[in-house]
Design goal:
Layout (H helix, E strand, L loop, with lengths): L17 E6 L23 H37 L5 H74 L3 E5 L6 E5 L3 H18 L2 E6 L7 H9 L5 E5 L14 H15 L5 H15 L5 H11 L11 H4 L3 H11 L5 H12 L17 E6 L5 H21 L16 E6 L6 H14 L2 E6 L4 H4 L7 E5 L7 H11 L10 E3 H16 L8 H11 L20 H11 L1 H8 L17 E3 L4 H5 L5 E6 L2 E6 L10 E5 H5 L72
Parallel strand pairs: 2-14, 3-8, 3-9, 4-6, 4-7, 5-6, 7-8
Antiparallel strand pairs: 1-2, 9-12, 10-11, 12-13
Helix pairs in contact: 1-2, 3-4, 4-16, 5-6, 5-10, 5-11, 6-7, 6-9, 7-10, 11-12, 15-18, 17-18
């Protein structure tokens, strides 16, 4: 496995490479709003209770009343009997006094009973008043608690509904290479455009080597031109004369590159002997001799001494003295004739490299693609030449690395190889090793699970990405995904959104309706941009240049929406990304995905399984997701963990642009999260759902009233 050299420089934190977007809901739904406390029924002295008390008193005192009536009658009868001369006066007076003496305590008992009833009623009224006061106090406390709870719920609901739903998935810091296994042309186009967004956003360098022959960089070209950046493109073999890649290397590097090309075109045996033969030729012809001159030297070895070969253009590039010196320098090899013959045959397609080269101005975006009509063997040879030349440039760390131009210092550089299965395994190792030493990021895309791709599934220096793989090697990929998930078939980050399931088919439909066949000639499709941009200006009037400064996120969103089929298709399907309200418990548009072998065969075109250290994560490589109002350039880790603990909204005004917070990482604090340590700043915003008591929110008696109709 390639190991980074000590001289390698790690990528800066600002130079993030986005692989796609992950759908996640970090803040849970707060649920329904707290219900307003209802006052209890007020208790009072009912008439039934009062009448009952009076009836009870009347029943109790009725004998006493009868006794008083009897005593009163007896007392009245005594004077009547005295006047009638029936009773003597003394006896009548004694009877009256006796009746009065008996009626006095009875009257006192009746009065006492009346007072007891009155006191009982008063105590009942006082008890009811105390209970009413206690209920009012409890109701006030409940209303105050409801006001606090409702304020917290309202803040949590706002935070839940305003939080992003699509977070960026980036290459982790310290990882310099990405190996993509599987994928269709549609998925690769989305991933390549997303990687291009990363470099255009910061003004970095991007080199694409497309060996598929299907022009997967088409949407990237459209986006780059809309961002006022003119990609420099070479379609091999037609543009070999215009390409200077590999022509500015020293003799040893060029010999290694050409021997690797010869080995890739054959069985791969004798590469060291071919390199030695080419080095000897350069000793005679000069270290900067062109490939045509080298081919002429090889033909000189297989041509008799007396044959001048005036009709051979390559042999005519050598003087008679050079031919003689070539034969003398290489004559000690007994198999030189056969080796020179085979080497000349394999290098003849590269005879015109750099013969009509353009100026070497810097180009920010460089694309090297192969013509599909040339075949798989030719794509292997051309791809080996391009990758081997880039590897040598990265090994040296030259300030002029890359075809047709150099790389600006201090910029993040990314090399993407589409169709890396066509390369020899040695070249894959070489480019990874050279990139690790030069601080360059490499993205290798393998159409199928080749041994070179499977060997790097467990490499900690490489980030493994698995896309749709309908082949028989899906079982090996499924085992790697299961091992990354800790032995389970599902993980926390494997929720599939409905938007990811339909967007790939929608883009393929838009491409077909536009009359552009994905299998068409890439040269014709690449040159189609010149018909839309006949002048060196974009539609907005910006001057198209070979390089541009960093593109603002909002401008990038606008360009993705208008210039790419991904942005247009995502805009049409934006209704599928309906935000979930705060009272809903789950999103019906999301379903968990079992990452088995069968699921990998039927993955949507744009979905990629990123095997991170925390387990597999489903990422949608569709660059159009950036145009959604629920998308953000921040990652899930940015929102969960920040260095300064600042809570901020990463989405405002429907824009997915990043917010300018300290550390460059916005965060959403969940309700009830502890506040960060005080660092002396007084303008730090409070986390969502906390500090309601300190803000002295007035008591809230319920939800706000309905909005007034402006038409009334």
């Amino acid at each position: 496995m390639p190991t980074p050299r000590s001289g390698g420089t790690p990528r800066a934190e600002a130079g993030r490479t986005y692989l796609g977007w992950r759908h996640a809901v970090l803040l849970p739904a707060p649920g329904p709003a707290p219900r307003r406390p209802a006052p209890a029924d007020a208790e009072s002295l009912s008439e039934d209770w009062l009448s009952g008390q009076r009836d009870s008193e009347a029943r109790t005192n009725r004998p006493l009343y009868f006794a008083l009536v009897g005593l009163a009658v007896l007392a009245l009868l005594c004077p009547f009997l005295w006047s009638a001369r029936v009773l003597p006066g003394s006896l009548a007076l004694g009877g009256v006094l006796a009746c009065a003496a008996v009626a006095a305590p009875i009257s006192f008992a009746l009065m006492q009973s009346r007072l007891v009833i009155a006191e009982r009623l008063e105590r009942a009224k006082e008890r009811l008043a105390a209970e009413r006061e206690e209920r009012d106090r409890a109701l006030r406390e409940q209303q105050e608690a409801h006001a606090r709870a409702y304020g917290e719920w309202q803040a949590a609901a706002r935070a839940f509904e305003a939080q992003p739903r699509w977070y960026g998935v980036t290459v982790p810091s310290g990882v310099g290479s990405v190996v993509v296994t599987g994928g269709t042309d549609t998925g690769w186009s989305a991933l390549l455009t997303t990687v291009g967004i990363s470099r255009l956003r910061e003004g970095g360098d991007l080199t694409v080597i497309d060996l598929t022959g299907h022009a997967v960089a088409r949407e990237l070209v459209h986006l780059a031109r809309r961002c006022a950046v003119a990609p420099r493109r070479w379609v091999l073999p037609a543009d070999l004369p215009r390409m200077t890649l590999g022509t500015n290397l020293d003799a040893g590097q060029r010999a290694r590159v050409l021997s690797a090309v010869a080995a890739a075109a054959g069985t791969g045996e004798g590469a060291d002997a071919d390199e030695t033969l080419l080095l000897r030729l350069m000793e005679v012809l000069g270290p900067h001799a062109g490939i045509g001159a080298l081919i002429g030297g090889l033909r000189a070895l297989i041509t008799p001494d007396d044959d001048t070969a005036q009709d051979d253009a390559a042999l005519a590039l050598l003087t008679a003295e050079q031919r003689t010196r070539v034969r003398e320098r290489c004559a000690d090899d007994p198999d030189v004739w056969e080796r020179a013959w085979e080497l000349e045959r394999r290098l003849s397609p590269f005879e015109s490299v750099g013969t009509r080269a353009e100026d070497g101005d810097y180009a920010q975006v460089k694309i090297i693609c192969t013509d599909r009509a040339s075949g798989a063997s030719a794509a292997r040879a051309y791809g080996t030449y391009a990758v081997a030349s880039l590897s040598e440039l990265l090994e040296v760390g030259s300030p002029r690395e890359g075809p047709g131009g150099g790389s600006r210092p201090g910029r993040v550089r990314t090399v993407v190889v589409c169709g890396a299965e066509a390369l020899p395994d040695d070249e894959v190792d070489q480019v990874l090793s050279a990139a690790a030493g030069g601080g360059v990021e490499v993205v290798l895309m393998f159409r199928s699970a080749t041994p070179a791709a499977l060997a790097r599934l467990d490499d900690p220096a490489c980030l493994s990405v698995v896309m749709r793989e309908p082949g028989a090697s899906t079982e090996a990929l499924a085992r790697a995904v299961t091992a990354s998930a800790g032995g389970g078939g599902t993980a926390a980050g494997t929720d599939l959104h409905r938007l990811s399931e339909v967007i790939g088919d929608a883009v393929r439909g838009m491409v077909t309706e536009a009359g552009t066949d994905p299998d068409a000639d890439p040269m014709a499709d690449m040159e189609s941009d010149d018909r839309f941009f006949p002048s060196p200006h974009t539609e907005s009037g910006a001057v198209i240049r070979n390089a541009a400064a960093a593109v603002a996120p909002l401008d990038l969103v606008r360009h993705v929406r208008s210039a790419t089929a991904w942005g247009r298709a995502t805009a049409q399907a934006a209704d599928l990304d309906t935000p979930v309200t705060a009272v809903e418990s789950e999103d019906a548009a999301v379903r968990p995905l079992d990452l088995g072998a069968e699921a990998l065969r039927e993955l949507p075109d744009t979905v990629a399984v990123v095997l991170t250290g925390d387990g597999p994560v489903l990422a949608d490589t569709n660059p159009g997701i950036l145009t959604l109002s629920t998308a953000t350039l921040a990652t899930v880790d940015d929102s969960r963990h920040t260095s300064n603990g600042t809570a901020t909204r990463t989405r405002g005004g429907g824009s997915p642009a990043e917010q300018p917070v300290e550390g460059g990482r916005p965060r959403i604090a969940p309700p009830g999260a502890p506040a960060a340590a005080d660092d002396g700043r007084t303008d730090r915003p409070a986390p969502v759902g906390t500090g309601v008591r300190d803000r002295r929110v007035p008591p809230n008696l319920g939800p706000p009233p309905e909005r007034l109709d402006w038409r009334v």
